[in-house]
Amino acid sequence: MKKFNIAKSRRLRSTPYSSRIEDQGVTSYTIYNHMLLPASFGSLEDSYHHLKEHVQVWDVAAERQVEISGKDSSKLVQLMTCRDLSKSKIGRCYYCPIIDENGGMINDPVVLKIKEDKWWISIADSDVILFAKGLAIGKGFNVKITEPDVNIMAVQGPKSFGLMEKIFGKKIAEMKFFGFDYFEFGGDKHLIARSGWSKQGGYEIYVENTKSGLQLYDKLFEDGKEFNVKPGCPNLIERIESGLLSYGNDMDNSDNPYECGLDKYVNIDSNVDFLGKEELIKYNKNGIKKKLMGVKIDIDNISISETIKIFDSNNKAIGELRSGVYSPHFKKVIGIAMLKDLNWDKSSKFKININGKSANGTVCDLPFI
Amino acid sequence: MKKFNIAKSRRLRSTPYSSRIEDQGVTSYTIYNHMLLPASFGSLEDSYHHLKEHVQVWDVAAERQVEISGKDSSKLVQLMTCRDLSKSKIGRCYYCPIIDENGGMINDPVVLKIKEDKWWISIADSDVILFAKGLAIGKGFNVKITEPDVNIMAVQGPKSFGLMEKIFGKKIAEMKFFGFDYFEFGGDKHLIARSGWSKQGGYEIYVENTKSGLQLYDKLFEDGKEFNVKPGCPNLIERIESGLLSYGNDMDNSDNPYECGLDKYVNIDSNVDFLGKEELIKYNKNGIKKKLMGVKIDIDNISISETIKIFDSNNKAIGELRSGVYSPHFKKVIGIAMLKDLNWDKSSKFKININGKSANGTVCDLPFI
């Protein structure tokens, strides 16, 4: 696979941590919400093993916040998601598919209820702020919509709990999954959630004060020595094994939440109003015609920059591979595919052409592990 | 300046031309509308000189189209831009600032009137489709909004006219600037506009049929030999010298069209309704407090990944540099800066700190050439 440089410019925004991670050895970037998001520090596989055993600090400032506040803020947030937020609580995070009037996915953020009339939508890679602004203007809602200067760093891995307790004390170790609270460091209060884009456990620190945030970044590496801390980033191997979906990779606006396996976040039986509700009721009644599934392929490497068609034994196209990576655990390539045939026999094989060579694969459920 | 690889994935979409330009020697990419946009083929300076003398073919598929059709399409397109489109004609392109309810820039596309009730908004780097969808839903407009599978290739440079006439005949040479029409190639009709993101002249081919589009791509290189054709891309040196603004680099949602020097596209005296009109009337009456200007800096190289502050002789911050590049023409760095002091004396010097070293600069008008 050929390698290409990224041409930096202000439009691909740096983060407050960029100069630090460049000193620490970041080797590749992706772009996410018009911002630099580290994609590797040397070997993906070394980083994967380290993440599963120790603790990493990640620059995930590219997870931008859309702040919605004001009298109609709850109404607007609810309008955008099929998840019923009527019983949501301050201090909790909610994974929420954002959908359009046809039920097509627009984003899959984590929504934080900050106050009764203030929300942060912690977004995947699409300009949700423009959708929110358009809706608010069109509906005449009384809301204020901004992108605050919040730059998340994540602390991920099994030893993240020990490291964070060392810095913030026992209270942070007792916080429940998808809870958030405020913790003092460097004279500032930082919102910290027990969350993150891995299944290895950890925290996300929503840094509003950059100065003390950078001090905290350095402190995590100082105090983290005994925990074997390293810089890291969302790891392609770990996230696919864990079945963490990536908007824009595994799903896009042409897919609805049922097709993405997000059924439990679709509350069509609730009383709340949201876009696409009628369409989703129809999909629920009539059934869907494609679905995201896991696949295993008998090859030892892959690099995906566009979808790759999947064929059955009669050479009929039955779907497309959207993400994939070599898994050291399964000792083959694993991936996430949108399959058209829902009656696919999980024990039978499919064919796929990778770099001009035919390979065999099998379908399986998500997550892999 | 350290170099970093781009981590490819489906989310950073390839274009139909990607495999061709990778064979032809593209060396760096930027990301634009979630898609790969080539940023260099080897030396920027060599490519700059070539573009000014010969002809280049560019993969600019990342200039995505937002198609708005239906009964209320004209109303929606007009609502989003401060440019009066009431007298717009089919077959013409219009440069249109898209602004929000505060007059803040959201994008600066070229709008093509395809039919009375069908428009293409050829966008810069932000998800205008989400803004349009939000507005249409909120207002209850009768429109259809899609991103059609259109992948633009540009033919740019002084010899583009000769090359295109060789392939398409005299009619294409007679087309006026910002006009468009349909031209036959490979059995398909292709929309071709006399436009492009350089000041060297040329065309943009809006390829809807990928198969004949790729044949046309190859034909341009075959027939282009006598014109010294080369693969290329929007050139940072040429675009800054020409004063072509880049959304996300030179301007963003915190700037209004007056501050960006786009006064002639702000039709506050027209009868048409658009978002932010009242705010723009106020700005026009009360004046603006910052403005995009050209700057020249006495150094011989620069690489910008975030804004750099500009100081006056009393060390007072008077603005920020947003784009910059070494210009072989001026034999110094030139750039585009947002300056807070509009009474800045154009003959006086400012100070700027680049890579830890202080440098001197002067302010000037845009474009440079």
Question: If you had to describe this structure to a student in words, what would you say it looks like?
Answer:
The structure is a homodimer of 369-residue chains. Chain A has helices at 18-23, 44-53, 73-80, 128-139, 160-168, 170-173, 210-223, 236-241, 277-286, and strands at 5-6, 28-32, 35-40, 55-59, 65-69, 93-95, 98-99, 105-107, 110-115, 118-122, 144-146, 151-156, 180-185, 188-193, 202-207, 229-232, 291-297, 308-311, 317-327, 332-339, 349-354, 357-364. By secondary structure, chain A is α+β, with helices and mostly antiparallel strands. The longest helix of chain A has 14 residues, at 210-223. Chain A starts with a strand and ends in a 5-residue tail after the last strand. The mean pLDDT of chain A is 96.
What topology does this entry show?
Two copies of one chain form a homodimer.
Chain A lengths: L4 E2 L11 H6 L4 E5 L2 E6 L3 H10 L1 E5 L5 E5 L3 H8 L12 E3 L2 E2 L5 E3 L2 E6 L2 E5 L5 H12 L4 E3 L4 E6 L3 H9 L1 H4 L6 E6 L2 E6 L8 E6 L2 H14 L5 E4 L3 H6 L35 H10 L4 E7 L10 E4 L5 E11 L4 E8 L9 E6 L2 E8 L5
Parallel strand pairs in A: 4-16
Antiparallel strand pairs in A: 2-3, 4-12, 5-10, 5-11, 6-9, 7-8, 9-10, 12-15, 13-14, 14-15, 17-20, 17-22, 18-19, 18-21, 19-20, 21-22
Describe, in short, the structure shown.
The structure is a homodimer of 369-residue chains. Chain A has helices at 18-23, 44-53, 73-80, 128-139, 160-168, 170-173, 210-223, 236-241, 277-286; strands spanning 5-6, 28-32, 35-40, 55-59, 65-69, 93-95, 98-99, 105-107, 110-115, 118-122, 144-146, 151-156, 180-185, 188-193, 202-207, 229-232, 291-297, 308-311, 317-327, 332-339, 349-354, 357-364. Chain A is α+β, with helices and mostly antiparallel strands and 369 residues long.
